[in-house]
Structure of Thiamine-monophosphate kinase:
Amino acid sequence: MRTEIATLGEFGLIDHLTEGIQPKNESTRYGIGDDAAVLSYPADKEVLVTTDLLLEGVHFDLTYVPLKHLGYKAAVVNFSDIYAMNGTPKQITVSLGLSKRFCVEDMEELYAGIRLACEAYNVDIVGGDTCSSYTGLTISITCIGEGEKGKTVYRNGAKETDLICVSGDLGAAYMGLQLLEREKAVLKGTDKDVQPDFAGKEYLLERQLKPEARKDIIERLHKVGVQPTAMMDISDGLSSELMHICSQSKVGCRVYEEHIPIDYQTAVMAEEFNMNLTTCALNGGEDYELLFTVPIADHEKVADMEGVKLIGHITKPELGCALITRDGQEFELKAQGWNPLKNGGNTTEPAE
Amino acid sequence: MRTEIATLGEFGLIDHLTEGIQPKNESTRYGIGDDAAVLSYPADKEVLVTTDLLLEGVHFDLTYVPLKHLGYKAAVVNFSDIYAMNGTPKQITVSLGLSKRFCVEDMEELYAGIRLACEAYNVDIVGGDTCSSYTGLTISITCIGEGEKGKTVYRNGAKETDLICVSGDLGAAYMGLQLLEREKAVLKGTDKDVQPDFAGKEYLLERQLKPEARKDIIERLHKVGVQPTAMMDISDGLSSELMHICSQSKVGCRVYEEHIPIDYQTAVMAEEFNMNLTTCALNGGEDYELLFTVPIADHEKVADMEGVKLIGHITKPELGCALITRDGQEFELKAQGWNPLKNGGNTTEPAE
């Protein structure tokens, strides 16, 4: 079944995709259908705004990413940025650029993923914009969230002796990407019906294809009354993000290799690919876990917290940023994190 | 002079482009440099959000659009959407996707245009995101504005007997586009140093390349105490926008051909191109003028207003939407407005 987008037109397509969307949040006064969305936030809230531009061939490869997953992930990575400010995502706008390759059914899939993410995180879609593109799929999502006034957590508040915490585990999304890229290369030119065997590697694929934002961690921190001094989400790799926090907070850090949380499947895959496991966890990217610092007085509260690991501490700036290996050696941390402008992105699809 | 973007990297480029940006608005608490921007609006304000995605080859053609103008226009069209809600633009975020064709100096030009627009309209740049693209230039801008609570003007408030008003004049931006397209075709294959002669057509080019948002009209309406019942900005053409207002307000309208404001240069160009002038003014698009309705009691206030023309009135829905020609005939209005999904955009650059 393939319905050409031209049969609906721009406005018809938006109407079709956004049909039945009902605002759930009190701060959403008017959603799709006018020159702008209208929001209303009480005076004790701060309004948080983040935006992400995703381009086919650079940020995603549709040969192995299902459109529904792509929609889900595109929304969730924006929610993650709002949680990383200690806020709650409330609204998103979605702009799409589509080439003729895409039909109405494709956009239904993509939107189904976006809507699923919005339901799961209680976020309203308040704006939609669709236009034609000559070059694949472009997705631009802006997310608006709220935070309690005075409770917003920035990257620049880490203090000497603060503890460094990370949620979940690292490197799995990167390993999932390697796995998908390998299968893509293997399957090139072979029978399209061959299904790759991902048994035992489901976690890696899920981390790459359907990441979640750590709403639960923010809630747990609130519950025990811990206010992080600095926080960000890990999208470019632990090393890169740690260096952002340290440079913006004007401090140094010590991180212990043995404490970096890594899943068993990630370790098995690194072995299979003959990659250094710690390097993968430090520089892999797309983890969407939270990296945060807390005062040392909160040690017990975070040490016992489900899904949170203490990986090191903040130091004086003169000491720099270093990794302490299992055998006690000190290495300077380097942000070799995923830099899409340096290496042309994380996929290998030249299209220009 | 050409500096490759890779020499700065993603973060370096953003730092470079946004250097020296200081927030001017009280509602901007924290701009570029964290996971999200932090805004704070008082409780008597509504927060307005609009977004626009611009793709090279679809929305702009760099063979005749200078990057600085493109940046200016990309920002201003978003401001226009906020004014069209009876609001004031306050913040924007800017996401860019760049292919290797672009260098640091190109991005300086683009950003110079965006920053110029932000200075002219007193708007803060609070977020920037840059990534590589395989396919030309992608610009995604989100604008946040504020409106007085209860004073926001939607498209759905027009009432029977309301007067229909439009600011400025129509069709000039479309004629400017035709002119640029013609010169591009003429110059194809000729000496690149040949400079086209645009003497006497400056206004058309300015309307196409450097449109302004009608902040002044909003201020004039406030000053005389006129609150429009419905309003939107004209981006897809008067016909299309009138039909949006009428269908969302569940009313009809009568518009008089003789009252549609058209500049002398637009008329001359239409003659030269052998185009129907009224059709150009009705369906041209990209005017970024304001279309609004006011109660008939405000007749005198708007009739005398500089830069505003009365072009018709709102009717019962049963009467439909019609244009009354100079010779008194009635034609049903049709939205043949610029639909980028139907005709593949307003330029002719196939790139896929």
